[in-house]
Amino acid sequence: MQSRHANTQSRDVVIAKRADDGAPDAETTPDAETTPDTEEIRRLAEAAGHEVVAEVTQTRPEDSSLQFGRGKAEELARTVEETGAGRVVFDNLLTPTQTVELAALCPDGTEIVDRHRLVLDIFEAQAGSKRAALQVERTKLAWNLPRIRENTDEQSMNKFTESGTRYYDVLDRIDELDRKLADLGDDAEARRERRREEGFEFVALAGYTNAGKSTLLHRLADDLDFEASGADHADLDATAEIEDRLFETLDTTTRRATIDGRRTLVTDTVGFVSDLPHDLVADFHGTLSATETADCATLVADASDSPAALREKLKTGFDLLDDAEGEVIPVLNKADLLSESELGEREAVVRKVAGNADVECSANPVPVSATEGRNLDTLRERIGDALADRREAELVLPNDDAAMSLVSWLYDRASVSEVAYRDDEVRVEFEAKESIVEKARAKADGFEVEA
Fold this sequence. Notes:
Layout: E1 12-19, H1 39-47, E2 51-59, H2 70-83, E3 87-90, H3 96-105, E4 111-114, H4 115-126, H5 130-150, H6 154-159, H7 166-184, H8 187-197, E5 201-207, H9 213-220, E6 253-259, E7 262-268, H10 278-283, H11 285-292, E8 296-302, H12 307-320, E9 327-333, H13 340-355, E10 366-367, H14 376-386, E11 391-398, H15 401-413, E12 415-422, E13 425-432, H16 434-444
Parallel strand pairs: 1-2, 1-3, 3-4, 5-7, 5-8, 8-9, 9-10
Antiparallel strand pairs: 6-7, 11-13, 12-13
Helix pairs in contact: 1-4, 3-5, 4-5, 5-7, 12-13, 15-16
């Protein structure tokens, strides 16, 4: 198509999606036998700030050059021409060849992106830290690189290898970003280690976008003003958003919560999105590191999803959490939207998927309603059971300033059950993780009187 595109910067987009024959989407429209469902990709496009002006879909096997069949691809090009859209957003993941061939078919200047690239655009807009911004840039360049090569004449690339081409410039920039990311280190992990030394245990909330993780965090948290304590908690947000949105930020939200008498920090991690390749997940490893190092992780799922959709999301979720060090507890949120028989059906799906997962996990899900506060005590008990065993201990100390300082230290890091003052002694009974008990005894060395 030869006509010049009127506005390459337009935020108007055309949604495109192809589904395989005989395999309609799990979450379907009434005529899903012939019409692929576009709800999630539409919401992703809107989250990126686009206005969807048209949709083009097809149910057929994938074409290696155009994703769509030739006739449907030409219809897509006509739709772009008629609507003046500046961008086509494919729900399917596109190969470099497909990206280049579709762009050649559409009006000049039309940008062709897939859901992978669209998510990167959303991440870029929400990157709140230097690390996140650098990581987004690096991943976008890695996505663009094979498409630049596909669209570049090989002879020209060889001719200008030494003087530089766009392809080699991008390679150099990726190397530079890798060095910068390495120099930054893992500040989040360093903060977590400091808090472990303070006696905190870590619970991660993982799951797909809009499963209700933020609402659940709001329910579990002790208060909204942990930052006001004066401690250096740069990653703790004063509030947790509960709005129905796909993305809020690449940076995790952490809040303090007392669960089963334990001092915990609960982190709402970045939501999973359907059908993203594992290399993208690996690129944003830092956003999932909270789940890998947590003492316990919950995999929060939307109970109102169809059984088929729930099954696929759970499989992906358990797969993404295969490096989790602590136990993974499946949670079925929005249980209030289902009948008892429907909920039982979803629970059966969880048990089957969890039974085949390559991760330490419970096969029995916890059904909850974060909006109504239903069954949260059971969830707290399950989390408490999954956390590391704690030891009961007793110290007998001289009644002096040094001992009082140690008692204060224990109150901040352990569950102190009794402090008894007898003559010149102070007897402290407490329960804590093994590491805290050992540190307390080490601090008391030299002035402790053994019971």
